[in-house]
Structures are given as structure tokens and as C-alpha cells.
Amino acid sequence: MLVGSLTWESAVIDDEALVLLSLCNKPKRMWIVPNLVRILKNLILAGYSPEHDVSGVSDPFLQVKILRLLRILGRNDPDASEAMNDILAQVATNTETSKNVGNTILYETVLSIMDIKSESGLRVLAVNILGRFLLNNDKNIRYVALNTLLKTVYIDTSAVQRHRSTILECLKDPDVSIRRRALELSFALVNTNNIRTMMKELLVFLEKADPEFKAQCSSSIVNSAERFAPNKRWHLDTLLRVLVAAGNYVRDDVVSCTIQLISESTSQHGYIAEQLWRALEKDTLDRQPLIQVATWCIGEFGDLLLYGAPVSEDSSVRVTEDDIIVVYQRLLWSTQNTVVTKQYTLLSLTKLSTRFQSGTEKIRQIIDLFGSHLHIELQQRGVEFSQLFRKYEHLRPALLERMPPMESGRQTNGTSGLTNGETEDVDPIMGEEGNLLVGERKLGETPDSSALLDLLEGPDAGGKADVRPPEPIKQPTTNMDLLDLLGGLDLGSPTPEGQNPPPPLPVQNNGLFNINQSSNFLVDGLLGSPSEVTNTLPRITAYEKNGLKITFSLERQQDNSSTTIITMSAVNDSLGPISEFLFQAAVPKTFQLQMLSPSGTILSPAGLVTQVLKITNPNKAPLRMRIRVSYSVDGLTVQDQAEVNNFPAESWQ
């Protein structure tokens, strides 16, 4: 009766009617859809009616209501969708686009086509309509088109790719909202076939972008380059351009990711050292991340820069040791550089003492000056590094030798239709500090390089990292002098009064932590009977932000008083679903961390994901932990990290 009462001359479908019709079962739907199609066809083909005409369109309000109802009825219904394909195509091709009234009907038509089980040709027609919207002078229509294409790109990527040039032109739009949507859509279109042209346009945008865009744009360029880079040299050149163009707006994860890529690209060490040196010679006051990456690279591969064979056509002028020392002095004495940047520079200069054939005395004099620096971190480094030129001179060459490559397990993906919604497997690696042990599992996946490097950030260690075996190692007496020198560099927790200090560990030349990947090893001892676990401790809140709450439930094992079992519970307190949830944790190297796979990666509203962590604390030191969470909400990726220092004393004593 409801549809039978609809006549195109005077009918109005209200919201209540839409709801009632959407609840109809399939037989009723198949009776309703043809009637709606007939009414809509009459509206399109009818002649002029002054009573219902709006800017030359017959009763646009009724057309919009019918289109919305067809979208509801055709959703997940192939038969109903097939019945309305023809009329949707007629509306899309016969509607006048010179007025906003026609654009409104076309927009509803596009939404209906994308929501039902429509044919591929019809979806291409809908995307082409949105492409025409991008050329409209009305900025509201352009914004709506970009917003709809951003939702459509994952349904029909190839159709959206045809409008790539128009989308890139929107990056130059004066409206900030349009530029932001165009930027998100541009990164969604990047794949192995267009990576070179897309990165060229996006880097030009990054150079001229407002500060509010630089951080997001630089991180997205780095992620896209990591997934689709055609070769190592192109990848390194792209990251270098990001560091130069984004300046101080580069996020910390970009610095860590760049350092790791340089380390593992063994065939490009000489080339990238030369390129970074040229960038470092210029004015770098507003490019602290660039200085940090450049000084790290030159400290590691300074001998290739000075004495290696020329690696580029314009490398006719050779760099001298005095040139490097002059630039390093400018960086160290500059009041504009941050303390972190000076830490990178001071450590790099110390390493260069083993790369130079001469000039060691000048380096020692500069380092000695920092022994009385007002900043305690720089003063500590100055005192410790100066000892490498005196009491521990015999240890300096071995201690400051080149770090081993930071290996990773990136998989080159050659599928042209890929977008940014996928992940890659990368082995855990050690950051520059070399003093945190990382454990993380996500349903068989290993964490990406930038995530782990971010957890292990910081230039605070001057020596090599140790390999952590499953059991503590007794310290040989032959290494006592070396450990005495490096004791102050350990970022592990201080030993509480009345407790024995942790047994020192030998310094190894390996740059990777030995994290056992065996699932049996991780499960052993974690799934025992309830009687084996006692001493339930108070629950603590580890993280609470943006509707995500993470709590820790702590228990002590009865048969192993040095082991604490933590059950991580993540609850979604927001109104929207959370997907691709990933939890990571890092502890000081005096601890041993094992993690089981999480119970899931999707948190519906009020949903719960749990994960079990097992921490062995043989020295009963105060427990500290750094956590990192990443997840997707409404298509946007969120990453955050936090320190957890509120563990109760009962968890380690």
C-alpha cells in the first residue's frame, strides 16, 4: 500500500517510510523495487511540470528519497540490485549537471551505485561522475567528491586511478580541507606502477606545504617508499629529500627508519654518506632530523666518504678531515641545535677518530671540552668518551668499529593494485641505544621496522649491543675494565638498596637481539594450571586515550618468584570500531620478555582484546616498560606510545 500510494505528481517519502521499507523481507522487496523503478523512470522522462519543477528538474526531492530507498533495498541483494541497474544508469546519464539540484541527484545516484551489488561498468560511471565533480568551481562539491572517492578507492582502485592527475591538482587548491582530503587520497593511489611519478608530485607538495601538513605527509611518503620502492638508491634519495623538505617537522620514526635503511643498504654506504655530507654542509638549523641522520651515517662510514672511490659524477672535489671537523664544530657549538642532535654529533665525532688516518688529536680536544658542559647528558658523554683516548685507548678501535647491518625482512610487493592498507613482515632489530629487549606478536606477523626503531629510539649508547640469551651470562673478568667504562651508558633500572646489582653482560659485536620466534618456547610455562600462579597483584592502567583503555593484570608464578605474568586487556570505549590493533612492548635488557599472540586485532565498541606477557626478572630490579599501540579508526591509522612506571613493588620484589 505504501508504494502504491506514491505518485510522482505529489508523493513524498518520509524517513519513517524509508525505515519501514528497509525492514521488508526479500519477496516484498522484489515487489517494491520495480514500483520504485517505475516511479523514478516517470520522473526522469516526464515533461515540464511547473508545480514540481526545480531548476529544470522534476521533483528532485522525491528523486533523492527514491534513490536513498533503492540503496537500502539493494544492499547485499543481487536480485534487487540487478533490477535497479538500468534506472541508475539512466539517472546518471540524463541528469542536468549545470545546477546544484542536478548535482545532488547525481551524488545520491553515485552513493546508491557504490552501495548495491552493481555492475563494474556502472561503478566506473559513478567514479567518472565524481571525477567531473572535482572540476566543479564549487569547493563544497569538490570536497564531497574527494571524500566519496576516498571511500570508493578501496572498492574500485583502477577506476579511481584514471583521475589521478585531477586529484593531484587538488593538492594546489587554496582550501585547506580540500588539500587534506586530496593528500589522503593521493597516498591511497600509490602502487608499484606509479610510485616514481606520485612521489615526485608529493615531494613537490611537501616542499611548499604548510607546516600542519609536513609531519603527516613526510611519514606517509616514507611508508609508501618503504613498500613500493623500485630499488635501494631511489629509496635513499627519496628519504633524503623528505629530510630536507620537511625539516624539523619530520617525526622521530622517519629518523629511525632512515638509519635502518642506510645500515642495511651495504652497497650504497659510500653514495649516501656523500649525499648526506653535501646536505650537512648547507644551512641545517631548521633540519635537526637531517643532522641526526647525517652525523650517524658519517660516523659509521666516514672512511668511505674520505678515502673511498667516487660514487657520483659530480664528486670531483674530495672531502678532507679538516672539512669534517670544521662542520662538526659548527654543529656542536651552535645554540640552535637540540641536545639530542649534539648527542648524535658527539658520538659520531668519537667514531670518526677510528675512521681518520690523522686528526685524532683535534677530535680529542673537542671531546674534552664537553667534560665540563652545563648539560649533564653531554657532560657524561664528554667524560666517558675522553677516557677512550687515555685509559682505555686500547679498547677504542674495537669499541667504535662499524655497526653490523640492521637486517630486516621486507618483502618486495609487485602487485600494481596495492594500497596503503597492507602490512609487511620485518624481523625485530636493535635501535641505536642497544639496551632494550623487544617482544611482540600479531597473529603470526612480526613488527615493522619503524615501529621497533621508534620503541628503541635514542642515541644514548656509545658501544655495541649485547645478544641476550635465555639465561643470564656470568661476566668474564677480562671485560671488567670495558664494562666499568660503559656502565653509565646502560639505561636499565637502577639497583634498589639492599639488593645485589645485576650480573654484567659482555659487549658483543652483534647488532641484533636474539628473540626466540618458536611458539612452543613462548607457550611453555604460560598455560599451566591455575594452581601454579599465585599472588594476584593490583590491576594497573597502562594507557587511556582516544577511547582506548589498556590495563595490566599482574600475577606471580609460585614455582618461579622472578617471573611475572601480565595479562594485557585492551577495551574500546569509543562509539566506533577499531581495526588492525597492534600492541608492542619493550623492557630494559636486564629483563626477559615473552609475548603470546593476541586474542584478536579488531575491537568493536565495548569490545575486548587480550594478550599474555611473561617477564622474567632474575635481578628483581624495579619493572619499567615502554609500550606502543597502533590501530585504525575510520580508515585513519593512529600510533602512540607511553611509559609504564607504575608497577606495584610486589611485581618484582
From TrEMBL:
Q: Which PROSITE patterns match?
A: GAE (PS50180)
Q: Which InterPro entries match?
A: Adaptor_Complx_Large_Subunit, AP1_complex_gsu, ARM-like, ARM-type_fold, Clathrin/coatomer_adapt-like_N, Clathrin_a/b/g-adaptin_app_Ig, Clathrin_app_Ig-like_sf, GAE_dom
Alphabetically sorted, this entry's keywords are:
Cytoplasmic vesicle, Golgi apparatus, Membrane, Protein transport, Transport
Highest taxon in the source lineage: Eukaryota
Topologically, how does it sit relative to the membrane?
A: Peripheral membrane protein
Q: State where the protein is found.
A: Cytoplasmic vesicle membrane; Endomembrane system; Golgi apparatus
Q: Which PANTHER family match?
A: ADAPTIN, ALPHA/GAMMA/EPSILON (PTHR22780)
Designated name of the protein: AP-1 complex subunit gamma
